[in-house]
């Protein structure tokens, strides 16, 4: 992939490119917890967005997207570009400038192998690779955590998704063979070894690209905040769902809409599942960990209601499969993938079954993506 990008750069701009990569992510457990300042457990994957880039004089950048086959001249002192892919890059530059950085102009070619629209955070990978590259090229002095915030704020202010920090954090901090137990309130994190011998991490794509995903995402965020507001009226110091226990929620249940109660209950329980699950991982008990993944799916589907028929269908087949340690929908929801932790010997038979049953029910064969937990943002030699 990177060779193709370098070659394209040479064709368009000549010599002198520096190359960077930043990966997509999976999340083993803990969804919709990040913006509620809880915990997540993501890992970077072996699929990334790559950029070949070189600084130039002036304020106009020349960009070429390999995946879209589109080029654009973009003045970073001008207004927001129309093309979505360009907004990510424009947003990163603006967020850096807001923080006082002097970001020069550049020309670049970028592209990658993070499947688009599958919930593997190709957008976070794009923000992170540009954040990382510009930081390095222009010696801006941002830390990886700063770059994660810059990526997150790009989503908020230039794309319109009020996302949490998980995706960008995973893309920037990932390490091979390790998942990141991230406390989204303090940004303290621990790298937890994740090398389940004899098992594979596999994704089955529901093939659903739900147009409601980002608007419903923002609604979930508002519902969580509504629950916090109720409890905060009574309990001092409550600022997010992180500060709310099930006892508190139950005490003030009658003051909130039932749907708000359900959303908040899910988030509180998901944090607990994650913390217990993490302890199992540290003891190498992948079986017990997998049970938490199934529990997470149930909560996301029934209480947080961000699943869809296709995701539930896949998860249900997985749950009934011997040798399947765990499975759950992953990410924002309303489409995207189910992540599986499956024993090697059960892998092929499960795939045959899920593909044929999915096709019989929904009329198409779901895409299967095997992933390995890989490294985060980096400069390439
Ligand atoms: C999307 C967001 C993340 C996170 C997940 C759900 O991927 O970008 O910040 O909220 O959804 O866990």
Describe the structure in your own words.
The protein starts with a helix and ends with a strand. The strands form three sheets. A six-stranded mixed β-sheet has the order 5-4-6-3-1-13, sandwiched between helices. A four-stranded antiparallel β-sheet has the order 10-11-9-12. A three-stranded antiparallel β-sheet has the order 2-7-8, sandwiched between helices. It is α+β, with helices and mostly antiparallel strands and 381 residues long. Strand 7 (178-183) and strand 8 (189-193) form a beta hairpin. The protein is built from eleven helices and 13 strands. The protein has two domains: 2-195 and 375-379, 2-Layer Sandwich (Ribosomal Protein S5, domain 2), CATH 3.30.230.10; 199-371, Alpha-Beta Plaits (2-Layer Sandwich). Helix 3 crosses helix 4 (144-159), helix 3 packs across helix 5 (166-173) and helix 4 (144-159) packs antiparallel against helix 5 (166-173). The structure holds alpha-D-galactopyranose (GLA). Residues 31-32, 34-35, 121, 163-164, 166-167, 331-332 line the site of alpha-D-galactopyranose (GLA).
Query: What summary fits the major beta sheet?
Result: 6 strands, mixed
Q: Please work out how many helical segments DSSP would assign.
A: 11
What number is the mean pLDDT?
Answer: 96
N-C termini distance? 14 Å
Q: Assess the beta-strand content as a share of residues.
A: 15-25%
**What is the general shape?**
globular
Would you identify the regions where 5 or more consecutive residues have pLDDT less than 50? none
Do you know the CATH architecture of the largest domain? 2-Layer Sandwich
CATH level-3 fold name of the largest domain: Ribosomal Protein S5, domain 2
SSE pattern: HEEEEEHEHHHEEEHHHHHEEHEE
Rg for CA atoms: 21 Å
Attached small molecules = alpha-D-galactopyranose
């Amino acid at each position: 992939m990177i060779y193709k990008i370098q070659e394209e750069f040479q064709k368009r701009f000549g010599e002198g490119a520096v190359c960077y990569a930043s990966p997509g992510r999976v999340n083993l457990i803990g969804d919709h917890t990040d913006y509620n300042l809880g915990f997540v457990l993501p890992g970077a994957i072996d699929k990334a967005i790559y950029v070949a880039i070189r600084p130039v004089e002036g304020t106009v950048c020349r960009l070429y997207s390999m995946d879209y086959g589109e080029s654009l001249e973009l003045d970073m002192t001008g207004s927001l570009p129309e093309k979505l892919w360009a907004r990510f890059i424009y947003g990163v530059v603006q967020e850096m400038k807001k923080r006082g950085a002097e970001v020069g102009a550049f020309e670049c070619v970028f592209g990658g192998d993070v499947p688009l629209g599958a919930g593997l955070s190709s957008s976070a990978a794009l923000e992170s690779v540009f954040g990382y590259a510009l930081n390095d090229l222009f010696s801006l002095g941002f830390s990886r955590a700063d770059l994660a915030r810059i990526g997150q704020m790009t989503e908020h202010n230039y794309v319109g998704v009020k996302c949490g920090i998980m995706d960008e954090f995973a893309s920037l901090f990932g390490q091979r063979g390790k998942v990141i137990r991230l406390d989204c309130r303090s940004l303290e994190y621990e790298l937890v070894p994740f090398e389940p011998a004899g098992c594979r991490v596999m994704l089955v794509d529901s093939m659903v690209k739900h147009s409601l995903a980002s608007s419903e995402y923002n609604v979930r965020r508002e519902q969580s905040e509504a629950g916090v507001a109720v409890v905060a009226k009574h309990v001092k110091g409550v600022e997010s769902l992180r500060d709310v226990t099930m006892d508190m929620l139950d005490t003030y249940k009658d003051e909130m809409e039932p749907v708000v109660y359900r959303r908040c209950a899910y988030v509180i329980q998901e944090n607990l599942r994650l913390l217990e699950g993490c302890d199992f991982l540290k003891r190498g008990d992948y079986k017990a960990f997998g049970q938490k993944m199934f529990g997470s799916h149930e909560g996301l589907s029934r209480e947080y209601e961000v699943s869809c028929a296709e995701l539930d269908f896949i998860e249900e087949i997985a749950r009934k499969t011997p040798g399947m340690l765990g499975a759950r929908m992953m990410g924002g929801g309303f489409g995207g993938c189910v992540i599986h932790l499956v024993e090697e010997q059960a892998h092929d038979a499960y795939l045959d079954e899920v593909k044929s049953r999915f096709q019989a029910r929904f009329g198409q064969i779901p895409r299967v993506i095997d992933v390995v937990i890989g490294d985060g943002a980096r400069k390439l030699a």
